[in-house]
């Protein structure tokens, strides 16, 4: 292999590495309301967001006291799916729990 060929391959590798970017990350947020129970919020956090009981309790208390809580950080498609899952579960349980995404 000639030196020029090796140098060109190194340049190609470098260009390829720079072209790959991480996808933007989005926060999934839960919003407080006056009807959804604390137990249901904890259940959602444990089941859909795979939070430990202690993490779920802490996030639920943020939602309750500050009006909003961060459930996790995900690429956009996953974040949107999580929001849809929260809304579907809440609707099936008769709660108005609302979730949203925000670019992180």
What are the defining features of this structure?
104 residues; Ribosomal Protein L30, Chain: A; single chain; 3-stranded antiparallel beta sheet; globular; alpha+beta
Layout of secondary structure:
Layout: H1 3-19, E1 25-31, H2 38-48, H3 53-66, E2 68-75, H4 76-93, E3 98-103
Describe the structure.
The protein has one domain: Ribosomal Protein L30, Chain: A (2-Layer Sandwich), CATH 3.30.1390. The protein has helices spanning 3-19, 38-48, 53-66, 76-93; strands at residues 25-31, 68-75, 98-103. The protein has 104 residues and is an alpha+beta fold. It contains 4 helices and 3 strands, in the order αβααβαβ. α2 crosses α3 (53-66). The termini are far apart. A 3-stranded antiparallel β-sheet has the order 2-1-3.
CATH class: Alpha Beta
Q: How are helices and strands ordered from N to C?
A: HEHHEHE
- Structural class estimated from helices and strands: alpha+beta
Strand order within the widest beta sheet: 2-1-3
CATH fold description:
Ribosomal Protein L30, Chain: A
The CATH homologous superfamily corresponds to Ribosomal protein L7/L12, C-terminal domain/Adaptor protein ClpS
Largest sheet: 3 strands, antiparallel
**Radius of gyration, Cα only, in angstroms?**
21 Å
How many individual helices?
A: 4
**The number of domains:** 1
Short description:
By secondary structure, the chain is an alpha+beta fold.
């Amino acid at each position: 292999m000639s030196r020029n060929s090796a140098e060109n391959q190194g340049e190609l590798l470098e260009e390829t590495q720079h072209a790959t970017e991480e996808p933007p990350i989005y926060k999934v947020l839960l919003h407080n309301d006056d009807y959804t129970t604390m137990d249901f919020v904890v259940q959602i956090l444990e089941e859909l967001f795979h939070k430990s009981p202690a993490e779920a309790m802490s996030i639920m208390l943020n939602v309750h006291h500050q009006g909003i809580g961060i459930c996790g950080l995900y690429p956009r498609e996953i974040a949107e799916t999580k929001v849809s899952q929260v809304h579907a579960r809440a609707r099936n349980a008769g709660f108005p729990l609302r979730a949203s995404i925000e670019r992180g």
